[in-house]
């Protein structure tokens, strides 16, 4: 479960401010955060992941207050419990698809290698990228790269999945297919799924939809 | 932290750009290799030079550079000094300081020095015939093991001396020599030399020759003028360029043997007293020959080498600092270009320590590879030092 309470955040030397009084995403729940580009959805996801730290307030995942964890502890927690799907995919160009998906194993989850690899293969089959296992990202289309990023985020079976425009580069058919995989996986495993999107056609699939402008108490402020 | 995973990620990045990685490894390896190789080469060279110098008690040769004389006599380097006369050699022999061994190293055959000497040389150097037999007559030769292997020559084959100058029609004529044996290797300059009797080198020099019997009326170009006792041959008389059992008796020497040339002479004194007497005999400033203690000459040479080494090491150190600075810059730029990749690792769940370790492992892999490469190259230099030294000297 993701719980955000009374957090405030401001980028250094920027007018943009974010204040959220309360946001909760329960286990097995898929929540969409919608809003125009640049409204702060990515910043919110980074705060929820513990990549950014709020100046006040708390972010908790499964009861652990990640906003107070140090660098090393926070990173270890994120690696094991949070799956991230980035807007720009953030795949490592010199690693094959297989190693990109198994990046969490290389970065520390060695003991779970077999389970993660098995899950990665299952997800690759479901998202249609099983045939690209040994290829490098530069040889894949945008949509295929995005699906690799999704497999990487889900293969560790995290309790929280944060996705930033995960279907932004997919065709309508694949958008629905990939989103179904993500939502069904979240429900099956009791994962908390938070997706930042402005794709209104897909909102019916989510359990909850939050307008980010209503979430941020500093609505009147400039964009980041 | 997963050490295997970190090593894997580092290796993947390095192998992704093999040329860049290889260039880095090679640049660092060369930086490490050059100073060490120079030290090893000079140290090995000194050992090799001193070992051979120790087994050569004294040298007599024409006045001039003692180092040139020593290198010529020990390593058969091309002769830089004027010749020593056979009369000077005979004088040395008559003084009975010990065993005297003539050395004549002016000529070459198949790029190897032709050494005219006596059988005492083989005893001094403990040279044994590995296959075939020792030289028995004029025109015979035995060759070193390395030359035999390099040119695929064996006992029973022939080897021809090289003319000194292609256009010198009146000069040294090639002599085809019969190889009677191949010497066992002793890992010195002897392994790449052709050994003949001293007189054979004089034949190559043109001081002796063999030709058709001019007293035979059937010989073309040797008309006996009626009423004359002297036989005058013209240019059509055939000179032999190979000594065989059939023509050996026709070979004869011209001129005063006392003026015949040698490169040097080795003197093996009977005892310390004879050694001291021999050295004293050549102290005279007016003497036309000099006596050299090879070990002293080699030590002088080593001192010169050490001075050169110090200079070269200073230059290598400067180059090394520049190369390492350049390598550091390459790493820094590479890490800067990979900031986004590192940020991805951090977002997924890599702490600062892990990312620092990742960078350090990559640098370590490159440096260790360079050290291994440098180590191998230094070992190779050590094993090839003797051969390299011979090549440099020749």
Explain how this protein is built.
The complex is a heterodimer of chains A (224) and B (394). With 224 residues, chain A is α/β, with parallel strands linked by helices. In chain A, 36% of the residues lie in helices and 22% in strands. Chain A has a single domain (2-215), classed as P-loop containing nucleotide triphosphate hydrolases (Rossmann fold). Chain A has helices at 41-49, 71-81, 97-101, 103-107, 113-127, 142-154, 172-189, 212-215; strands spanning 2-10, 17-25, 30-34, 56-61, 64-65, 82-85, 160-164, 192-197, 208-211. In chain A, helix 7 (172-189) links the parallel strand 7 (160-164) and strand 8 (192-197). Chain A starts with a strand and ends in a 9-residue tail after the last helix. With 394 residues, chain B is α+β, with helices and mostly antiparallel strands. Chain B has two domains: 3-48 and 302-393, no CATH class; 58-210 and 251-292, no CATH class. Chain B is 50% helix and 16% strand. Chain B is built from eleven helices and 14 strands. In chain B, strands 1, 3, 4, 5, 6, 7, 8, 9, 13 and 14 form a ten-stranded mixed beta sheet that branches. In chain B, strands 2-12 form a two-stranded antiparallel ribbon. A two-stranded antiparallel ribbon of chain B has the order 10-11. In chain B, helix 1 crosses helix 11. The longest helix of chain B is centred in the last third of the chain and has 44 residues, at 294-337. Chains A and B meet through helix 2 and helix 4 of A and helix 1, helix 10 and helix 11 of B.
